[in-house]
Amino acid sequence: MDVFSGSLVQSNSFIKLQSSPSSFPAPMLLGNKGERLTRNNPYSCSCKRKTRAHSSPNLHSPSETTFEVTGVKSDFSSKEINWPSPTDDIPFWKKDFPPWDMSPLVSVNLDHHDPNPMHIIHVTAEMAPIAKVGGLGDVVTGLARACLTRGHNVDIMLPLYECIPKHQINKLIRITSYESYHDGKWVATDAYRGVVSGIPVIFLEPSNHFFKGSYVYGGSYNELEAYLFFSRACLEWMQVTGTQPDIIHVHEWQAGALPLLYWDMYHHLSVKKPRIVLTIHNLEHYGECSKEQLSRCGLDGPIYATVDKALDDRTIGHNPERLSLLKGGIVYSNAVVTVSPTYLKETLCSGWLASTLIRHRDKYYGILNGIDTVMWNPSSDIFLPAMFDAQKTDGKKTCKRYVQTGLGLPSDKVPLVVCITRLVAQKGLHLIHHAIKRVEQLMIVLGKAPDVRVESEFEGLAKLHNQGPSIRIMLIYSEELSHMLYAAADMVLVPSLYEPCGLAQMIAMRYGTIPIVRKTGGLADTVFDMDDQANIDKANGFVFDGIDEGSLNWALDRAFSHYTQKPEEWNDITRKVMQIDNSWHNTAGKYVDVYNSVRVCQ
Asked: Are 122 and 160 in contact (CB under 8 A)?
């Protein structure tokens, strides 16, 4: 397919705009194996589980970081369950859960490690589970862990947000005190090292007011200036400590200034080895910036106000013109990745950054995200009242009954639809609203709305429906409840207007839940319609094209018809989707190919 004076090459979940780089993989072995935990769970089940530390102060601290992917043999036999009630003082998803220490499950597999190990540092504003707002945090954690299991040396650099639950960080110690520049001053900064979910993390804590507040985003400080500071502070730490990674992998606009700072400043000092890879998770977040703000991190802001550098094309001729940190990151990075093949095509055909991406098409790749199959695993998930897998699915029925009972929903044999999402325009709010009115069976919506107007609208819907027999609208963020809902549901609704990749549909399938999605971005790359005879072997869900209510109705009606009229076929497809490999295992290999295509070989 020749879209623009360059051929488009696609192979499964990897699409790029040049001939494929040689497949050089790579490795690094860290640490000893941590001991396994055994705890009783909140469902009165006594069972041994190999798990990851979640939100409990009583954490397991392995002597060193270890990485192994092992099979999990779980006992799915019947256990005594304390069935919840909607009148319980403590909602069932807020009860105490056993610690979830992932390190016993993750260590290097020496039979399948990559040759030529690399040191990779991720610079990011989010990381699951300690600083997670959306899919960015999941992706960073999943990709980092996958590269660790392939034998690479991986660190994540993250602001030490005031809101981070410190008890979720194993072996947190201060390793460096130094100063980093911001707005004419050198700001005292502490660097800490810890281990989160089996992954080494370097936390940066400036002595000023940056990153203070109750949430990852939305503090009382200027976020853009805080992330400009963070981008330089990461490079300054590498300079001070003599750290020379092979790859600095930056994510989203928050780290968009780092490539500019690297090539125009630190590469001329002593940090000469690294090459820069940028991942665009959502092209709608540009990192709009003034020349004066960029100058506060030590760069000469006006120099970047040109079309071939960081000028925001939408502001050409305005007074003042503006910069885009994301655009600057695209121009200055050695390779740019977005999170699905279809989204790559979409970004080249629409949006104000399309011209910039086309100019840099020879270094632009589309690699489908994976999901963290250690964190999302129905056969070992500590949040579930019953575990299950593709061979033994009875536990899924127990999870459905458990959620229905806890939310006061009838346990009729009708399909349960869930929608787990941020309530923002991108996610198709009008279609979610329509589904709430349209679904006559059971439906649960879980999500938060950052816009007060949207929040007010859904609060009204909650008041209208939450006392009724079939709909529950829960305007909260709960990692625990999301795990339970994916396990309990028969169908997951993802009606996004656009979706760079989407994780909900892949997580849902991991738990035997059938996706109903709009055909866009990564949804189009991962979900194939049950009634599409051309793709019958890939069929795993229900797909619609339009953004109108009628298109959604068509998909919902077909899904409900399959569920009620073809129960055996439905059970077969449930087992089939659980066995689809949407893990980071294959996807990480494609990132390694990109890393190897730009790294400096010694």
From this structure: no
